[in-house]
Design a protein that fits this description.
By secondary structure, the protein is mainly alpha-helical. The chain has helices at residues 31-52, 61-87, 89-94, 109-127, 131-138, 142-156, 183-191, 203-222, 231-247, 267-286; strands spanning 2-4, 10-13, 17-19, 23-25, 28-30, 169-171. The strands form 3 sheets. Strands 1-6 form a two-stranded parallel ribbon. Strands 2-5 form a two-stranded antiparallel sheet. A hairpin with a 3-residue loop joins strand 3 and strand 4. Helix 1 packs across helix 2 (61-87) and helix 1 (31-52) runs antiparallel to helix 6. The model has no long low-confidence stretch (mean pLDDT 89). It is found in: Cell membrane. The chain crosses the membrane at residues 29-46, 67-87, 107-124, 229-247, 259-285. Its EC number is 2.5.1.145.
């Protein structure tokens, strides 16, 4: 069964405002931004539960609020910087103002991950905690945000997959072969089955399911009991690296990069290989590492 993507990326259109000094502006709230908000709310709520259970000894809810704030900055700044450096540096050099248009997409998970690790290091240093005790605490809170982010990609009609080659998939009006057609014409042709050949893998939904739902279920279950230092972080890195590497086989690479080698290797896969290696290393390292025991904060 084929489905036509018809979701408006704008969640709320606030109309045109004429303001002194600023002139005419047209503020909009995009679903992509809403997904980021839901990601942070989910992480905050889940993390509070873990703090109350004493899973980060000596840390109260106020200190945890600071950690979430720092990590949120790390996600946004690191994700944007990572995308620019890893995926599309020439475009942003030519048009620097594109940096601020995050509602159009252009966020890198790997850059966001580095941003979160830096934020966790900064916060851990201030609170005299081992970095990986903090990272192990944060890791199970991340997958819901990954899932929401991929849903945002789907709503935006971006980062879609390869043609399915069958009578199923999603037809994206943003497809280069269709984007010049009026939406009404696309609807009419789709109704006749003429656009079935353009059906693509909804790779965003594959990633939302694997990186979001499956990873959250596994990590939340695994971290319910105290685990040795590095273990939760290692499992997170390993699962994400494997899931991302596999889905990249049916996902279209960024047009400005294409395939890097062999006619199939993508930048996403290249960046995921170190995560797989790190995940395995951290899991091995956890075998000889101490286990942080819960202690209710006061």
């Amino acid at each position: 069964m084929t489905v036509l993507h018809q979701i408006d990326p704008v969640a709320l259109d606030l109309g045109t405002w004429n303001l002194p000094l600023l002139g005419s502006i047209h503020p909009q709230i995009h679903w992509y931004g809403v997904m980021y908000l839901l990601a942070f709310v989910a992480a905050w709520w889940l993390g509070r539960r873990r703090v109350r259970a004493g899973r980060l000894p000596g840390v109260d809810e106020a200190a945890y609020g600071d950690l979430i704030f720092y990590c949120a900055l790390g996600v946004v700044l690191g994700g944007r910087l990572g995308y620019i450096l890893f995926y599309d540096l020439p475009t942003y050099i030519a048009e620097p103002l594109q940096v601020f248009k995050i509602w159009q997409g252009g966020m890198s998970f790997h850059g966001g991950l580095l941003g979160v690790v830096f934020a966790a290091w900064w916060w851990s240093r201030r609170h005299r905690l081992h970095l990986f005790d903090t990272v192990d605490f944060v890791a199970p809170l991340v997958p819901p945000g990954l899932g929401f982010g991929r849903l945002g990609n789907f709503i935006n009609g971006e980062l879609w997959g390869k043609p399915t080659g069958g009578e199923w998939g999603v037809v994206f009006p943003s497809d280069p072969a269709l984007q010049q057609l009026p939406m009404q014409q696309i609807r009419e042709q789709f109704a006749t089955g003429a656009l079935d050949q353009f059906a693509r893998h909804p790779s965003q939904l594959y990633q939302a399911g694997l990186e979001g739902l499956v990873m959250f279920a596994v990590l939340w279950w695994y971290s319910r009991r105290p685990r040795p230092r590095y273990a939760v972080s290692g499992l997170f890195a390993l699962l994400y690296g494997l899931f991302r590497f596999v889905v990249e086989f049916v996902r279209v690479p960024d047009a400005q990069i294409g395939y890097l080698a062999f006619g199939w290797l993508t930048m996403g896969q290249v960046l995921s290989l170190p995560l797989i290696a790190l995940g395995l290393f951290w899991l091995w390292l956890s075998r000889r590492s101490p286990t942080l025991q819960p202690a209710l904060s006061h």
